[in-house]
């Protein structure tokens, strides 16, 4: 039997599409403030937004009539008809946000329109019992969302921990603040300021405020102009690659959006000859484009955008980054073209030095190269994790690999400052010194933890360091775990920390650097089980072992090899790469055709 759903049920289903978690409510309310031309926005949350979300702004505000219409479904001031969807200028436009939020919360909106002497207050419970009354407040709007999902308990149980939900809100606000650097933002959690930014006319100042001075100082800037698009790109150079994709952002017309696959591929191609294969660039790409050339109406949360000419934009970004990366200075680069984005290219770009930077005159742009199309799919495949079985053929017979091992193995030397060559019982061994050292240190760490014999290196002078807000929140949520693992770290200010000790087996290291790398890695696996998280921290800490490029003395090399063969799993490092390669005398004689 087919039933016609009640309006209340319809509203709750619609709310589920737009408001999945507190983050979505915060994002929608902040976007409303931005569309109201606010220059100052304050967000307050309690219990990660589950108990309270309050967004205050100094924007244009609303009159009584608009306030009453604001929480009706499909009521919006942003568009008037279907044709307006082809040239959307605002961040919000669907007319679903306030209606959806009000349907699943105890909702209040207080507003005073610019030029009016008094304002109005609207309250609603679960989208019902709507009341409007006079309100005496400043120009702008204050929106309060209390007891989110109080009438949809099924949705409540799918929410993550407060730390996770709060981290998502912080990440979203950071992105919004990066995209709108001319507006001041403030975030308070449990009445404590999490971050605060002032208005600025410089993107670099906002980047420094949100992502930290250390990262901001590594960035170079390049600009590309075209009649249909303007690009302002901040990017890391050849010597400042990162261990993950944490610092990668894409903004279109001041809207933070997900990085599409074609853009990831474009950046990868531009950088592939400039940084190691296991490293990643940091970048913030600000794009200003004609609204008629994009479609922002393909997803309820408006995080996805379709471009009318992806291939032309791909080519412009690729050429801009590639040119910047191949210069030896720290240029501001201007790419100037007067032709349509997707026109075929005629001739080569002419790069010429122009003052402190470079200007690249690009007559026309072309689409994807065939080779780029062929490699596109492979770039989106997950990275392979190589286990012991993967290398069974390399090691010949794994079960016999160490059976004949003699602790008096003869070290012949080191090649390429990376590999140790040794001879034992008529066989030649080639050891990857970094992979081997990682395995030794990893198993020693685990053994000392199991036996409760972990020795700590007390620091004469504690190391103090500061993190970006979202990363700081993640470290705060994991402080207990770090301390259990012998890394003594504590809060030392809002987003600052102090390290006083760390496991002695890690040697002479920059523990601050290690903690930052570990916590940034954890950012991408927030919801893993505690045991997996503990193991991940230990694995990451052990990466500081002997590196490729380190000079290893013969006695040190011999000890490393002896220690390796005492390990439970000597054939791979903790991340699955092989530690050694074996060649028998018989293998060599076959190769040189002596047999």
Please give the share of residues in helix. 25-40%
Q: Total helix count?
A: 18
Gross morphology: elongated
Portion of residues in beta strands equals 15-25%
Largest sheet: 8 strands, mixed
Strand order across the largest sheet = 5-4-3-6-2-1-7-8
- How far apart are the first and last residues' alpha carbons, in Å? 82 Å
Radius of gyration: 29 Å
Number of strands: 25
pLDDT averaged residue by residue: 77
**Structural class, from secondary structure content?**
alpha+beta
Low-confidence stretches: 77-88, 328-402
Topology:
Blueprint: H1 7-18, H2 22-35, E1 40-46, E2 52-57, H3 64-70, H4 97-103, E3 106-112, E4 119-125, E5 128-135, E6 140-146, H5 153-156, H6 162-179, E7 184-189, E8 192-197, H7 203-211, H8 213-217, E9 219-226, E10 229-236, E11 248-252, E12 255-256, H9 261-271, E13 283-289, E14 294-295, E15 306-307, H10 310-326, E16 333-336, E17 350-354, E18 357-361, H11 370-379, E19 410-415, E20 419-424, E21 427-432, H12 433-451, E22 456-466, H13 469-477, H14 479-484, E23 488-491, E24 496-503, H15 511-522, H16 530-541, H17 554-564, E25 580-584, H18 585-591
Parallel strand pairs: 1-7, 9-16, 11-13, 16-18
Antiparallel strand pairs: 1-2, 2-6, 3-4, 3-6, 4-5, 7-8, 9-10, 10-13, 11-12, 14-15, 17-18, 19-20, 20-21, 21-25, 22-24, 23-24
